[in-house]
Amino acid sequence: MDTYSVDVVYQAISALFQGNNPKEQEKANKWLQDFQKSIYSWTIADELLHQKRDLHANYFAAQTMRNKIQNSFSELPPHTHESLRDSLITHIGQIDEQTDNVIVTQLSLAVADLALLMASWREPINDLLVTLAPHQCAIWPLLEVLKVLPEEIDSRYLRLGANRREEVHKQLDASAECVLKFLCMCLQREDLDQQRVWNAALRTYSAWLVIHAFPVSHVYNNALTQLAFRLLSLPETSGKLHDNATECVCALLSCINTRQDSASDPESSFEAQLFGAVCMLETPYHLSVAHEDTDKTINYCRIFTSLCDAFFYDLLADAQKPHYSLKGLDLVLLCVGHFDYEVAEITFHLWYKLSEDLFQRNEDKLTVLFRPHIERLISALFRHSQMESDHDGLIEENNNFYDFRRKVSDLIKDVAFIVGSGACFKQMFHILQAPETTWESTEAALFIMQNVAKNILPDENEVIPKVVEAILNMSEQTHIAVRYTAILLIGELCDWIENHAESLEAVLNFLLYALQQKNGLAPAAAIALTSICSACRQKMVCHISGLVEIARSLDSFQINNDVAIGLLKGISLILTRLPREQLQPALREIVGFQLQPLAQLVDSTGGTVQKGERTDPVYWIDRACAIIRHTNPDVPDNVEHPTVAILNDAWQLISRVMDKYQNDLRIMERTCRLIRYGIRMVRKQAMMLVEPLIKQMVVLYSVQHHSCFLYVGSILVDEFAKSSECIGGLLEMLQAFIEPTFGLLQMENGLKNNPDTVDDFFRLASRYLDCCPHQLLQSSLITPIFQCALIACSLDHREANSSVMKFFINL
């Protein structure tokens, strides 16, 4: 106790908040953190609150008290709980107009958390009401306590058990009527600041509504609910009050238990009244739009969307006899039609929910019921997706409008089935045909069409041929954004093009021309070409020489490496369809385009690796990896795989990459992935690589401890452990891996700091148990592996722990 005293703590607080020496402030901060963890902080924080020396000391003491209750309540013996409670209530009662709001919040949270944790405090709400409600100054902290108490029930810091939570809910339910009376009484008091008490009372009321503490009979016809709707109906309501009234109504709507009940049910009557009250907010919504008060408009949008959420299952109850709540969707569509796309975005989760439910139910009559609403939704999304008429160039990635269009894209793909993709496509086509259509309308229509094109039947011959012809004949003067979106649409029509082979030649010429442009069209062309390669594999075989030239010229196009890799995947899918005598030379040539620059990097001396640039080995390794992975011809086991010779020839280069860049984990992981796909492709025909690969991996692993080598080891076991001539070498590999692995894991916090190593090592051990169990169990290696697994059971890491458990299951 000599170390900690009120005066010493106060000096540390002063040094922290009022000192000028950063080192002294850091020292004081560390000392105060240690103090807060000590048992003495309970009494000293309590004393500081009584003394009220200054704002900083009061704030620190209130925060300390709250943190102690939240995190260290078990430190206190049960017989001290009551004195702590009484002391805190005394502090709350002494709050006045001059008390800082932060201190009020911290003390209120301390009282609320104590009420939740202190099971012996049987009626905390009633006790607080009796003690504090009669005093005018105590009304404000009492309202704060009553607000935060229901909010803290599910606090992840308190970690209340299920039984205690249930007890607390019963306590709050029993006190709910008293709380409601108190809140309504606060509204009637003339000695309190009206705006302030309205805000505080509505916030508290909302917190209790969220936990469904009030009986339905008490919810609608009370002064607080009426106040919320009155405030929302008045255009002069302040922003803060409008926000709190909105929260209140949304919480009210969350209380609705939508059921298939009779109209005479009192709860159904309440629901109808509440629905009618929300519908009356349509006029205030229009006023907010007229006054361009976007914050209020957003609030109304939230309420209308919450209304449909609350009545969601009533909306879907009966297609023959639509529920009155269907009007709620009209209110939501009003908001979707607002000029600000941020308002429309608030409603998106509702449309997702509706489309998912309709898809699951698969009832035609129900789907037809909502078709007009989705048609209006798509029309509104078309308008919101339009770029500004004076916009030059393409939309910049990662700005707000780009992100919004991405969300629109996802939403349209989800809801299109309700109106039919073909009907949606045709609706946008009519917009394109309208006279004097602006470029931004054209681009937005093409954007909508792009998102439904994949779902249109490939034999459609009415609209798509006209659209494709118009796109292929676009002039150079067409706005760049229109051309960009049109190219992406061509890519999405790949299944239609596959079914209309006569259009393929013209489409490929069009895309090749766009790919060569330096104006931003190349990425779209590459993406579209990738899609067409994937869909038209057999029909593209005759164009392989052109595709090889594209692969040769890849770095002359204005595309990033991810798009280039995608294009190589598409070309590789065509390679797979080639006859054997054409496949190997074409594959060797395309792989060579990637390995030659890689070899130059390995041969070069000096120079730094610039991540993602051409001086980065990963740049070329990822490309080669994409080619090897997706060139997957159907080759019988007794015929040499066309990739074998290429893989054997590339081994020397791969080996040199591993040697030169052994310190770089990222490069090693990508190299191991290339080896993995190569071995998986040719399987047992990679036998010639096993011995040199194992020798090099064992040496590198003993020095660098990269767990990716363990992963490649598990691939080798999977492929070659069934061959008797390989088992000895594979067991030697495991023995060589064990020593550096165990050395790493036995260091301080070794398991915790190396979960990837644990994961990959026990995946490797499991592969041995799967593929050659007798040889492993008869060896001396199984004992140390088993002992390590027992220790690794305690590791709190999902993937690593899963691999350890799988090892035990296999064992």
Automatic annotation (TrEMBL):
<keyword id="KW-0539">Nucleus</keyword>
<dbReference type="InterPro" id="IPR057942">
    <property type="entry name" value="TPR_TNPO3_IPO13_3rd"/>
</dbReference>
<dbReference type="InterPro" id="IPR058537">
    <property type="entry name" value="TPR_TNPO3_IPO13_4th"/>
</dbReference>
<dbReference type="InterPro" id="IPR051345">
    <property type="entry name" value="Importin_beta-like_NTR"/>
</dbReference>
<dbReference type="InterPro" id="IPR011989">
    <property type="entry name" value="ARM-like"/>
</dbReference>
<dbReference type="InterPro" id="IPR057941">
    <property type="entry name" value="TPR_TNPO3_IPO13_2nd"/>
</dbReference>
<dbReference type="GO" id="GO:0031267">
    <property type="term" value="F:small GTPase binding"/>
</dbReference>
<keyword id="KW-0963">Cytoplasm</keyword>
<dbReference type="Pfam" id="PF03810">
    <property type="entry name" value="IBN_N"/>
</dbReference>
<comment type="function">
    <text>Importin, which transports target proteins into the nucleus. Specifically mediates the nuclear import of splicing factor serine/arginine (SR) proteins, such as RBM4, SFRS1 and SFRS2, by recognizing phosphorylated SR domains. Also mediates the nuclear import of serine/arginine (SR) protein CPSF6, independently of CPSF6 phosphorylation. The nuclear import process is regulated by the small GTPase Ran that partitions between cytoplasm and nucleus in the predominantly GDP- and GTP-bound form, respectively.</text>
</comment>
<dbReference type="GO" id="GO:0005635">
    <property type="term" value="C:nuclear envelope"/>
</dbReference>
<comment type="subunit">
    <text>Interacts with (GTP-bound) Ran. Interacts with (phosphorylated) SFRS1 and SFRS2; leading to their nuclear import. Interacts with NUP62. Interacts with RBM4. Interacts with CPSF6, promoting its nuclear import.</text>
</comment>
<dbReference type="InterPro" id="IPR013598">
    <property type="entry name" value="Exportin-1/Importin-b-like"/>
</dbReference>
<dbReference type="GO" id="GO:0048024">
    <property type="term" value="P:regulation of mRNA splicing, via spliceosome"/>
</dbReference>
<dbReference type="Pfam" id="PF24140">
    <property type="entry name" value="TPR_TNPO3_IPO13_3rd"/>
</dbReference>
<dbReference type="Pfam" id="PF24138">
    <property type="entry name" value="TPR_TNPO3_IPO13_2nd"/>
</dbReference>
<dbReference type="Pfam" id="PF08389">
    <property type="entry name" value="Xpo1"/>
</dbReference>
<dbReference type="GO" id="GO:0006606">
    <property type="term" value="P:protein import into nucleus"/>
</dbReference>
<dbReference type="GO" id="GO:0005829">
    <property type="term" value="C:cytosol"/>
</dbReference>
<dbReference type="InterPro" id="IPR016024">
    <property type="entry name" value="ARM-type_fold"/>
</dbReference>
<protein>
    <recommendedName>
        <fullName>Transportin-3</fullName>
    </recommendedName>
</protein>
<keyword id="KW-0813">Transport</keyword>
<keyword id="KW-0653">Protein transport</keyword>
<dbReference type="InterPro" id="IPR001494">
    <property type="entry name" value="Importin-beta_N"/>
</dbReference>
<feature type="domain" description="Importin N-terminal">
    <location>
        <begin position="28"/>
        <end position="94"/>
    </location>
</feature>
<keyword id="KW-0597">Phosphoprotein</keyword>
<dbReference type="Pfam" id="PF24139">
    <property type="entry name" value="TPR_TNPO3_IPO13_4th"/>
</dbReference>
<keyword id="KW-0007">Acetylation</keyword>
